[in-house]
Every structure is written in structure tokens, then in C-alpha cells.
Amino acid sequence: MHMSEKTTALDTRIANHEIANEITKEGAFNRQNNRFTTTFGSQPGELPVEVGRYRLLWARICPWAHRAVIVRELLGLQDVISLGTTSPVRTKNGWEFSLDEGGVDPVLGIRYLPEIYAETDPEYTGRATVPTVVDVTTRKVVNNDYFRLTNYFETAFKPFHKEGALDLYPAELRAEIDEFNDILFHDVNNGVYKAGFAQSQAAYEQAYDALFARLDQLEDRLSRSRYLFGDRITDSDVRFYVTLVRFDAAYYSVFRTNRNRIIDFPNIWNYAKDLYQTPGFGDTTDFDAIKRGYQLGNHADNPYQILAKGPDLSVWNKAHDRAEKFK
Ligand SMILES: N[C@@H](CCC(=O)N[C@@H](CS)C(=O)NCC(=O)O)C(=O)O
């Protein structure tokens, strides 16, 4: 019946992960490259930066997309780049615009994200992923470079930042931030996925060990400053936050990253609450979508589609000690 059909589709997706070509012979997850990577800017061949020209498509579950949405908020780019939101649980046809009236994105008129990838490049065989940036004047996917997207918002879109916007990517710190972000990506942001998608015990344990060794180091770093780079929020904080906010509700169980929870690290936990309570962070975080996306989507082997009741998420609104500690 319905149940077994669902299980079969899910099993196939888990078995192949639809990332079959992203698994090494040692059983480790090796993420696909981004297909649409043209840079934003004013040089020939770059994507011209204009108000209202681009639409950012995201799913609230997704950390890679969430960071672009947080930066869009922090910089006040809401009227410059429009936002389309898919439902948090990916369907077998890909990300679906079922939250919108009639089940289609109101600007692009598409029901599923892969439609716009197919329109842009009929030869494209990779996964249609969020975040995706579409040029609404040409209806083409122009960028899905989740790694650099926030940096474009921070630099190329600078003329459109709101007055008094934070400088999330200060010129004098860029080299350090880039170096830090790279390490953060491998051990933490993508580290949880490497643990969760591993298809061998050794690959899983390697990812787990690297992840917690790095978190121990970051716990120490955050005992010395309020944010990762001193007393100002930077791009790196956004990148760390999106993993932290998903950790206890999803990764801890679904990806087996269970040495300890984020609330067990005194400095990281207070830092995470500090960010959550900062406009742009908590107000773009949807725990229900995160739980559903990871637990009911293809990430988890969950044939009966049971959603875990916990953990208690009200703790994110509790007081933090960061302002007091670093005044
Ligand atoms: N574009 C990157 C990262 C973005 C990414 O993985 N996004 C996920 C959601 S968090 C997604 O859209 N996955 C779609 C799929 O696996 O079909 C990739 O291809 O690995």
C-alpha cells in the first residue's frame, strides 16, 4: 500500500543517496561541485547587480540556504533580492513550492525547483539545490554557489546595503575569514553531512572525530571573544550559527553526531543563543522545518515518518552571558 511505496522511494534514495557519484570508494561523502558559479559584479561576464533582478530560492531546513537568507536580512537586502521558499521536506520531484498559493512560486510559476534548472540547462544532470539564484529577467539559474553567495551579498551588493549595515566581511579580515571558513566548512558545516552520509564505519568515525575536535577548539576560541572574530559579527558567525542551530534538533540523532549536544558546550551554547536572539538569526530560523526536513526527508531512514517530540527548543530564548562576559 501507500506505506510500502513510500518506503521503497525512500530506500532507493537512501541507497543511492541520489548522491551515488558523490560517494568515494572508501564510503565517504564528497559533495558535488556547484554548476552555476558566475560571479556578481560590474566586470564583463559578471552578473550585474541590480535591484529586483534576482530571486533567491531557499528551503528553511537547509543550512547553506539559511546563511544567505540571514546575510540578506542583516544587510537589509530584502527589497533588492526577492525570496522564494520551498517546503522543508523535499519530494521525489525535488524541492516543491507547496507553501505558495496554487503550489507554484508566484514569480517564476514553477512547482518544483528542478524545472528552472531544466529550463536553464536541459543537459544538467546534478541535483537541483538550494540556495539557487534566478535572474527573473531571463528566467535562468545564474548562481547556486552556496559557498560564496554570502560574500557576493557582502561585497558586490554593497551599494544596496541598508544604512548602518554591519560589515560582515571587512577587507582587512577577508584572508583570515576565508581561511577560517574553509576549515569550518570541512570539519563542521559539511562535517555533519560527512558523518551523516558516510557509507562506512571508518568514514563516519573520521568525520565525527574531526567535527568534535574542531568544536572543542571553537569552544576554547569563544571563551576569549564574544564572536569568532572579536566583538563584531562576521560572515563566519553566520556560517557557524546555521550548523549550531540544527545540531541538537537534527544532526545529533539523524547524523549520529552524538558525542555531546551543543547545549553542553558552555561558550558555544551561550554564543549560539546570543546569535539566535539577534535580529536576522532567530527570526529566520524555523525549528519545525528543520526537524521535519531532516527527520522526515531523505536524510533519515524513517519509514513510519515519526517526528521526534524533543528536544526542548524554548531554551534558545533563555538569557545568555555573552554581553556581560565581554563588556
Ligand atoms: N549546492 C550544494 C550545496 C547545497 C545543498 O546541498 N543543498 C541541499 C539542501 S541543504 C539541496 O538542495 N539538496 C537537493 C538534493 O540533494 O537533491 C551541493 O550541491 O551540494
UniProtKB/TrEMBL annotation:
The active site is at C62, Y193. PROSITE patterns: GST_CTER (PS50405). Keywords: Transferase. One of its GO terms (cellular component) is cytoplasm. Pfam families: GST_C_2, GST_N_2. GO terms for molecular function: glutathione transferase activity. Residues 170-304 form the GST C-terminal domain. It comes from the Bacteria. Signal peptide: none annotated. This is Glutathione S-transferase family protein. It comes from Paenibacillus lutimineralis. The lineage of its organism: Bacteria, Bacillati, Bacillota, Bacilli, Bacillales.
